[in-house]
Design brief:
The protein has 106 residues and is an all-alpha fold. Helices cover 65% and strands 0% of the residues. It is built from six helices and no strands. α2 crosses α5 (62-78). The radius of gyration is 15 Å and the shape is globular.
Length: 106
Amino acid sequence: RHKLYSKKIKYVEIPPTTVKKYASGNGRAHKQEMTIQFQKQTGVDLYSLFDLTESKNGEPPSPINDVVDAYFIASIVLGKPITHAIIVDDIMNKLKELSNARKRVT
């Protein structure tokens, strides 16, 4: 933050509770609830895309959390859900590329 401020770069901090409330209507929502809302809005099953399963504690694994958080933060910044098919397709194609690259490394 200090570096951004010192370089006069504007930024916005979005509290996790705001992201959760935007995603699910509940500022205390669990990651699983946010993942369900992501799938409802986009029609994309991230578990299949990344070839992953729920972790032992029932929460989505990190790559899924990261994608879901980024999606809802971008939606907040844009002021509306990202539902335009071309944008969603572009994002999903990039995620598939990253997922495939990850599989080759492991």
